[in-house]
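Take the subject:
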Amino acid sequence: MKNFRAVTLIGSTIAALGLAIAAPANAGQLHNGWNYGIDAFKDGALKHDGSGGEKYNIRGFAFKETEDKIIIGLTGGTSWEGHNHSGAGQGKVGWGDMVLNFSPETNFTEMIEDYGSYTSSQTVYNVKEEHKESLLAIKFAPNDQGGEYGLYSVDSFKGITKENVGYANMDAYNKYLNRGDAQNRAMGTDLPNKTDVTNYFGTDQRILNVVEEGTKIADIAQLDEAALVSEGLEFDHFLDGVPTGGYEQTFGFSIDKSAFEGYLPGGMSEFMAHVFLECANDGVALAGNFTIPDEGGDDPAAVPEPTALLGLSAMGLAFAARKRRQLEA
């Protein structure tokens, strides 16, 4: 049974939280003040019955920080409200909830209790107690799970892929990734191949794509494509000319920086963010860093200068190297 709670944050003003985004593991995805995760161009899995394809293909995930807000943009074939589908439990297939992992050296599978092989009898899995402070989630679009839109701490996740005519686990999905670009950017430039994806999410475990139980921390503000473009978002820098099958949707949201106050420790915090569609026909990930001051400490520069970004790029590359060593171990 889903259980969403709300809390009121009491703290200092937005200026008390400095948050500077660094380069992702692939520093080449920085453009015009945004950090981009560009997904494979042909991995919106097309099933044998003709369902799926470009309607359910995520093409990009982008992240920007301003003086007082964090802005996130998404683009692909699925709109904010999702697609009508007679086979889906509630008549639509849309977006799952976005997950932010602030201990990215730990794979998502290691943060979930009793996360064994897929079973039809278990759909809900608890977050391990020691990892609850490392996982936050954002409910940003309508889905089967319901709940208010906003930033959440998480006690448990649920997998709703089968109710949405989707894939039970990553192994089932990966059977449809045996073509061209899909193998090179399986879930974007920061989880670039099948090995990276299955190490992070597992192979035969249920795909967990929505929050089951959590506590709401703060609201978000929904943004349409025009609002994102006015902030400098330019997915076409990477995607111009990419076939879309006529399905092109771009939207996003923003969060006040003050929302993270008291939930993340001061200093440099690396993160890995990801989101799946309700059907798990596609998913995308994005890596980066937040610079967060110690409580009551000085606020570091909110928006890094270009020279600072170069230094943060090196940190992103070091993060990528650590992930590779972990996968090879």
Observations:
- Residues 3-11+20-328 form one domain.
- The chain has a mean pLDDT of 78.
- The longest helix spans residues 306-328.
- The first strand starts at residue 3 and ends at 6.
